[in-house]
Design brief:
- The complex is a heterodimer of chains A (334) and B (566).
- Chain A is mainly α.
- Chain A has a domain of 167 residues.
- In chain A, 69% of the residues lie in helices and 0% in strands.
- Chain A has nine helices and no strands.
- In chain A, α1 packs antiparallel against α3, α3 runs antiparallel to α4 and α8 runs antiparallel to α9.
- The radius of gyration of chain A is 21 Å and the shape is flat.
- Chain B has 566 residues and is α+β, with helices and mostly antiparallel strands.
- Chain B has four domains: 89 residues; 108 residues, Alpha-D-phosphohexomutase, C-terminal domain (TATA-Binding Protein, 2-Layer Sandwich), CATH 3.30.310.50; 115 residues, no CATH class; 147 residues.
- Chain B contains eleven helices and 27 strands.
- In chain B, the strands form six sheets. A six-stranded antiparallel beta sheet of chain B has the order 2-3-25-26-1-27. In chain B, strands 14, 15, 16, 19, 20 and 21 form a six-stranded antiparallel beta sheet that branches.
- In chain B, α7 packs antiparallel against α9 and α9 runs antiparallel to α10.
- Chain B is elongated.
- The N terminus and C terminus of chain B are likely disordered.
- Classes of the chains: A mainly alpha (334), B alpha+beta (566).
- The structure holds protoporphyrin IX containing FE.
- Chain B: Its main location: membrane.
- Chain B: It is a multi-pass membrane protein.
- Chain B: This is Cytochrome c biogenesis protein.
Chain lengths: 334, 566
């Protein structure tokens, strides 16, 4: 955009980012209220009815977003607050998207070339994947987790990592920046969803265990978990996101090696960032194996998914800022 | 038991889909002495649980290499670490923590993992090979016991048996068309087709695991045929691709240093642009290009460019740009005006504004050897403390300052000395510091006297005639790294193979389908059932679709019964 002041564009972009954060906060609140109200709703509706409706039988427990059997549509609880949360998330996403595009225009390149931009785009993708998945599965019970993550990380990254637009350093001028980093962000988004599902799975497992232990005539406890798919369904859904994420991560690893070979003359050198990319890859390979190992399916594999995503976050934050290595792209001068 | 040959997929006995009956294998203690124990050990090593534990160990073991500097990636960091932690460093070194990825414990983990992998994949490959050429298994007697099951009854139009057989024929044709391998199992009283698809899933899984072995071997063996060499070239300098002309050379085990492909390379010009002051990112350097001319024997000289991210291919070697800097040209004359030194000396950059440090050694021609320790500032400025600094990387106000030492350079006794360092012990400082004489300070084109009437020193202006300002007044150097890598293409090929294998292994559904027609009192009862082999979220939909499609192809009077979902 010749003639437009990049600094001004970036300032507008920054303003939009904060607007998006504010809207995400509202979405988070709406989703949180939804979860609180679900406990009541769930008590009113018969427990079993809801469970049957959310988890259509067969097929490993596909969670249907509106394809429940027609007989129960009338009694289907309409989660108004969840709906509001989703509308707000989508609105926040629009601001977030425009902010990201403006940043790209200001910089005259893809907006994922330093830590701030990587956070901007990465979280945009997390929200995008979440919203896209909502069209197929009703995962609104993850809404508060996802918007909470977006608020914390986007707000945090903007405070801590925002830098002015500067020309790209030579090592970053490569098509592989476009491909490698984008696919890594996409993988991160999928891992984030899998992480959220694994967390809820663990909580749900605990509840199911307690329920099984409780005497049959015990007073049912209020909990939003009644409106959430059972642990098995959560697990197989988490697995599905994780394996797609794993494919992208594998590609990230390969693309990164090709880039490293162009930039540094070796495709693999156990640079700190390479180490962590590898560690994450191995952790998720372990997770996939755990799902297929007797005695590891369920809680243990869920923990691996959680550990895997923790490593992803660690890799992006702590490793980028504090670890020394060739991947000096944070754009921060320390 | 699910790893019976008819199952189609052989899995380690502790695979989640194996029947728990095989647990007894693990519980039963071997009674057969050495062979029994060996068998048992092998089965443990090739079990899912071992693979999983080794994978997790591998992840954990890789972490320390990111916390402690590694000799392979950051040798200077290791040296620094020893200086900073003199007590801790030797202990860490004993534990191979500075060479994590070649350490015995790291190697042990990945070697065990790969042994386990091979031990797991080989029998599965054999088994899969057989499965690929065998028929889909017999139709189960009671399809209704399967989770995904539909049924309908059709009115009989003529003879019941013929109708049933025809319906199964139709189903078999449809299944075959959608990629299933089919087998007919007609018995007295019922007709059925058994179909299976998704062998590619297991093929993908095996290809993936085997390709990982391929990656490991390519890295291990290919590394032996790989070499890297470094060379610093000042503008105008040439270099021949032979061992002698490298400043450092790291050959793989099988590299013969005498048979490098013969070519020569000249650095014609090195370009870099700086973001001017007042703009965002001002002072930042970019667009580094080394313009070179390469020549192979008997061929015409060729122009080439070496850029960051864009190495130059020469005769199967790849030339990378590692670094760059200034190489001031200095001439030293003795008291009689005879030239005793004339060279462009590469100065190593110390900061982003190219404050550079270099050493000039004059071994002959003067009464004593001379060592000069120089700082070069492309755009000199004076800090409030009085110290000099450079404020910009380009040549705006270039200044060279030199401290001069007289005495023994220590280069005659054969000890190798770096050209970038000066050891002033045993020398007398005669200019700069406490020597009583000021340090020598020059701009391009200027000449000064050396102390004690030793002669003169000139900082040559290399700018072509008519150049404006100080543009081009000081030569630049490029530090090049020249690689031959035979492993790379193989590693890439195996990695891509692994990726495609993985795609198939994770996303191709493997499933069995059955369509069975049984003539009974009300007509012909048709059943559809499916069974997933491994993760298959769309099985229910697939059975439903099969039932619908088949129904549509049947004579119109047939009427569906409600799909039964258990
Ligand atoms: C370098 C080490 C290994 C890595 C990185 C690795 C990675 C993977 C990955 C990503 C998958 C998922 C693909 C699929 O489902 O087909 C997988 C599956 C599998 N791996 Fe490995 N693996 C390794 C070693 C092993 C070993 C040693 C064994 C033998 C015990 C093994 C047995 C299996 C089996 C049986 C599956 C299929 C799981 C299922 O049914 O879902 N793997 N592996």
């Amino acid at each position: 955009m010749p003639g437009t002041d990049p600094l001004l564009l970036d300032e507008i972009s920054l303003l939009l980012v904060w607007t998006a954060v504010a809207i995400y906060v509202l979405a988070f609140i709406a989703y949180a209220i939804d979860l609180a109200r679900r406990s009541d709703l769930a008590l009113k509706a018969k427990d079993e009815v809801v469970a049957r409706e959310l988890v259509t039988a067969g097929g490993g427990g596909v969670i249907s977003a509106g394809t429940g059997s027609s007989a129960s549509v009338a009694s289907k609880p309409r989660y108004l607050w969840a709906r509001l949360g989703t509308v707000l998330t989508a609105l926040g996403f629009v601001f977030h998207l425009v902010a990201t595009v403006l940043r790209g225009i200001a910089a005259e390149r893809v907006p994922w070339s330093n830590m701030y931009e990587f956070a901007l785009t990465g979280l945009l993708l997390i929200v995008a994947v979440y919203l896209a998945v909502l069209t197929r599965y009703d995962l609104r019970f993850l809404g508060s987790l996802m918007t909470g993550l977006a608020v914390l990380l986007l707000g945090g990254a903007t405070l801590a990592f925002h830098v002015e637009v500067v020309p790209l350093a030579d090592p970053l001028k490569s098509v592989w920046l476009v491909v490698h980093v984008f696919v890594a962000s996409l993988a991160t988004a999928l891992f984030a969803l899998a992480f959220g599902l694994s967390v809820v799975q663990l909580i749900q497992t605990r509840r199911e265990r307690k329920l099984a232990e409780a005497p049959a005539d015990a007073e049912p406890k209020r909990s939003f978990l009644r409106t959430v798919p059972n642990a098995d369904a959560l697990e197989s859904l988490a697995y599905r996101f994780a394996i797609v994420g794993f494919i992208f991560w594998t590609f990230t690893l390969i693309a990164g090696s090709i880039w490293a070979n162009d930039a540094w003359g070796r495709f693999w050198g156990f640079d700190t960032k390479e180490v962590w990319t590898f560690v994450i890859w191995v952790l998720y390979a372990g997770y996939i194996h755990a799902r297929a190992t007797r005695g590891w399916r369920g809680t243990r594999s869920a923990w691996l998914s959680i550990i895997g995503f923790t490593a992803v976050l660690f890799n992006f934050t702590i490793v980028n800022v504090f670890f020394k290595g060739l991947h000096a792209y944070s754009g921060l001068t320390t | 038991m699910s790893n019976s040959p008819s199952d189609g997929v052989l899995r380690p006995s502790d695979h989640a889909d194996s029947s728990p009956a095989s647990d007894s294998d693990e519980i039963t203690q071997p009674r057969l002495g050495v062979i029994g124990w060996a068998r048992w050990g092998w089965r443990q090593l090739t079990s899912m649980r071992t693979a999983l534990v080794l994978l997790l160990l591998l992840a954990i073991a890789a972490v320390p290499g990111s916390l402690v500097p590694q000799r392979s990636a950051d040798p200077n960091g290791v040296t620094q670490y020893f200086t900073d932690n003199p007590d801790l460093a030797p202990v860490l070194d004993k534990l191979s923590l500075f060479d994590v990825y070649t350490s015995p414990w790291f190697s042990a983990i990945y070697l065990l993992l790969f042994i386990s992998l091979i031990g797991c994949v080989l029998p599965r490959t054999k088994h899969h090979w057989k499965a690929l050429r065998s028929q889909p298994p017999r139709t189960p007697a009671r399809l209704s016991r399967l989770d995904d099951h539909r049924s309908r009854t059709i009115a009989v139009d003529g003879e019941a048996d013929a109708t049933a057989a025809a319906a199964v024929d139709t189903a078999a044709a449809q299944l075959r068309k959608s990629g299933y391998r089919v087998a007919r199992y007609d018995a007295r009283g019922s007709y059925s087709v058994s179909a299976e698809r998704g062998y590619l899933r297991e093929t993908g899984n095996l290809v993936f695991h085997a390709a990982l072995v391929g990656v490991l071997i390519a890295v291990g063996v290919g590394g032996g045929f790989t070499y890297t060499g470094q060379r610093v070239l000042v503008e105008g300098q040439a270099f021949a691709n032979s061992l002698l002309d490298y400043s450092s050379f790291n050959p793989g085990r099988f590299v013969n240093g005498d048979t490098l492909s013969p070519y020569s390379m000249t650095l014609d010009q090195f370009d870099v642009t700086y973001v001017p002051p007042g703009q965002p990112g001002s002072g930042q350097a970019g667009d580094f290009v080394a313009h070179v001319t390469t020549q192979a024997p008997g061929a015409d000289p060729q122009d080439g460019e070496v850029r960051v991210n864009h190495p130059l291919d020469v005769q199967g070697d790849r030339v990378y740009l590692l670094g760059n800097g200034y190489a001031p040209t200095v001439t030293i004359r003795d008291a009689d005006g005879r030239e005793v030194f004339h060279d462009s000396v590469a100065f190593l950059p110390q900061d982003a504004n190219m404050t550079s440090l270099g050493v000039i050694k004059v071994a002959d021609g003067l009464p004593q050897q001379l060592g000069l320790l120089g700082f070069f500032y492309p755009t000199m400025d004076v800090l409030p403390s009085g110290a000099l600094t450079s404020t910009y990387g380009d040549l705006e106000y270039p200044v060279l300052t030199l401290r001069v030492y007289e005495g023994d350079l220590g280069i005659d006794d054969g000890t190798p000395r770096s050209v970038y360092t000066l050891d002033p012990s045993g020398m007398t400082q005669i200019a700069g510091g406490d020597s009583g004489n000021p340090a020598i300070q020059l701009m391009p084109g200027q000449t000064e006297d050396l102390p004690n009437g030793l002669g003169t020193i000139t900082f040559e202006n290399e700018a072509p005639a008519g150049a404006s300002g100080y543009d081009g007044s000081v030569k630049r150097f490029a530090s090049l790294s020249i690689h031959r890598d035979l492993a790379g293409p193989w590693v890439l090929a195996f990695a891509l193979l692994a990726l495609f294998g993985l795609l198939a292994a994770l996303f191709v559904p493997r499933r069995r389908m059955w369509v069975k027609a049984t003539p009974d009192a009300g007509g012909v009862r048709i059943e559809y059932a499916g069974l997933a082999r491994g993760e298959d979220p769309t099985l229910a939909a697939a059975v439903e679709q099969l039932a619908e499609k088949h129904g549509a192809a049947l004579p119109p009077q047939s009427h569906p019964e409600t799909g039964k979902v258990d």
